[in-house]
């Protein structure tokens, strides 16, 4: 079947849907019905969502849950989480409650520096380029003033610009490497606009530079773009308490629990296969809050995993120790976030999520997100090193299986009762429901 289409973006929404439905579906009417079922009845709201991206045909729901009882630096938060995976919100809530009676979470923003680069090719004497850069540097600041004045008023702006010689990596390759402070905005547009202006200044000034030969004047700018690797935009989240205080119903022997927990973290520190899954658990918490607060989870994911490899081998983002009978568990992650601009002022549920968090600054949001990641990691390791993950997970998953089977209220009740004392498995639930239906 040839499904190529010309001029698709020019079609109306209705025409796009009709084309999709008649091209791909045996029952176009049913497909159109489903697509439209997810439209919002509030036309204005739907239009807003339609215009976030291109070629929108419908909305794709992801649940928005909340995890209460997060005590962070002495203040209580209910954290909004947008995530489709069952048991993540429950795990976060459980970890939050557990630590709320053990001193809560502490979080500190270590640095908030963002990075952008102009990548360019220069064929010539590098010492002349260095001289040119030293003489021109001030212009990169003064000739971007129109772009930076508002940001400067908010306490941000361009922090520094350096010339980087990368010819050991690629012949003729140099960079303008710039650092920025973008306060409460994620800053992508601000940084990229500044970088494109730097590129123009670079080309213009090189053309006019008397010491350059004709070839040296001909700087080729390859691209100007921010970096999502932000190792100097870092937040730390931690919990700690006396080992004996770790005790509770499911932790009868806190010393043994603490030791096994630390061992589990050490395994993730030294073994990449485990480290990836360990960090995935952290990102369950991080991404859910990132998404709920309208931030860019792809940017955060890319940056966080690069950071996890900063020593040359992919490793755990979190660490744990027992020292002087005190258990400590912490993580440090790079997070370039915004609480103003972008989707934060457009998406009604993002606004709601931010208001639920009492309209945090970007730095406060960094702390909240890092804590959500640490809580998630704690909950996962606690299950893994005690009951095993499937116990809680499958209980939560039970609901999804029952939805798939379109179970009635009565069937649900019988299933819940039965699986209180039986191991939950997909096939086990299916055959139990079938057995009820056949009696
Ligand atoms: C599942 O989404 C996340 C875990 O695999 C994390 C971990 O293994 O630490 C449970």
Descriptive report:
- The longest helix has 24 residues.
- The protein has a four-stranded antiparallel sheet with strand order 3-8-10-9.
- The relative contact order is 0.12.
- By secondary structure, the protein is of the alpha+beta class.
- It contains 16 helices and ten strands.
- The protein folds into four domains: 43 residues, no CATH class; 205 residues, 3-hydroxy-3-methylglutaryl-coenzyme A Reductase, Chain A, domain 2, CATH 3.90.770.10; 114 residues, 2-Layer Sandwich (Alpha-Beta Plaits); 46 residues, no CATH class.
- The two termini are 47 Å apart.
- The mean pLDDT is 96.
- (R)-mevalonate binds next to helix 10 and helix 13.
- The site of (R)-mevalonate has 9 residues, from helix 10 and helix 13.
Instruction: Please state the CA-atom Rg, rounded to the nearest Å.
Output: 27 Å
Beta strands, count: 10
What count of helical segments does DSSP give? Answer: 16
Text of the CATH class of the largest domain: Alpha Beta
CATH superfamily of the largest domain: 3-hydroxy-3-methylglutaryl-coenzyme A Reductase, Chain A, domain 2
Strand content: 15-25%
Unreliable spans are: none
- Ligand identities: (R)-mevalonate
CATH topology of the largest domain: 3-hydroxy-3-methylglutaryl-coenzyme A Reductase, Chain A, domain 2
Distance between the termini: 47 Å
The number of distinct structural domains comes to 4
Topology as a string of helices (H) and strands (E): HHHEEHEEHHEEHHEEHHHEEHHHHH
Q: Can you give the mean pLDDT?
A: 96
Coarse structural class: alpha+beta
Gross morphology is: globular
């Amino acid at each position: 079947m040839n499904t190529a289409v010309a001029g698709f973006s020019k079609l109306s929404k209705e025409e796009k849907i009709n084309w999709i439905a008649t091209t791909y579906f045996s029952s176009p009417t049913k497909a159109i019905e489903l697509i439209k079922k997810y439209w919002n009845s509030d036309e204005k709201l739907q239009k807003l969502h339609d215009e976030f991206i291109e070629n929108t045909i419908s909305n794709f729901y992801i649940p928005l849950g909340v995890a209460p009882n997060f005590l962070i630096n002495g203040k209580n938060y209910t954290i909004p989480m947008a995530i489709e995976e069952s048991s993540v919100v429950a795990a976060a809530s459980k970890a939050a409650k557990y630590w709320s009676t053990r001193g809560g979470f502490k979080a500190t923003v270590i640095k908030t520096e963002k990075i952008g680069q102009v990548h360019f090719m220069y064929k010539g004497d590098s010492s002349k380029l260095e001289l040119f850069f030293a003489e021109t540097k001030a212009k990169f600041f003064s000739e971007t003033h129109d772009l930076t004045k508002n940001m400067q008023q908010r306490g941000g702006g361009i922090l520094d610009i350096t010339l980087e010689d990368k010819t050991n990596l690629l012949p003729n390759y140099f960079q303008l490497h710039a650092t920025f402070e973008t306060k409460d905005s994620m800053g992508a547009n601000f940084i990229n606009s500044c970088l494109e202006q730097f590129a123009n200044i670079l080309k213009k000034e090189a053309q006019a530079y008397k010491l350059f030969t004709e070839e040296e004047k001909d700087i080729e700018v390859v691209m100007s773009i921010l970096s999502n690797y932000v190792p100097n935009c870092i937040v730390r989240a931690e919990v700690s308490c006396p080992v004996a205080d770790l005790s509770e119903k499911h932790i009868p022997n806190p010393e043994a629990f603490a030791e096994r927990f630390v061992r589990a973290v050490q395994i993730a520190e030294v073994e990449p296969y485990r480290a990836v899954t360990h960090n995935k658990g952290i990102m369950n918490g991080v991404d859910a809050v990132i998404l709920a607060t309208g931030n860019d989870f792809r940017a955060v994911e890319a940056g966080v995993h690069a950071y996890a490899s900063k020593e040359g081998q992919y490793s755990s983002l979190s660490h744990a120790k027992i020292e002087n009978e005190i258990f400590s568990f912490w993580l440090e992650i790079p997070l370039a976030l915004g609480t103003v601009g972008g989707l934060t002022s457009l998406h009604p549920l993002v606004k709601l999520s931010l208001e639920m968090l009492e309209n945090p600054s970007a730095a406060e949001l960094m702390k909240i997100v890092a804590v959500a990641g640490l809580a998630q990691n704690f909950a996962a390791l606690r299950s893994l090193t005690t009951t095993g993950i499937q116990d809680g997970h499958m209980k939560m998953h039970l609901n999804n299986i029952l939805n798939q089977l379109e179970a009635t209220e009565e069937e649900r009740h019988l299933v819940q009762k039965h699986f209180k004392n039986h191991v939950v498995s997909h096939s086990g639930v299916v055959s139990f429901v079938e057995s009820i239906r056949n009696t």
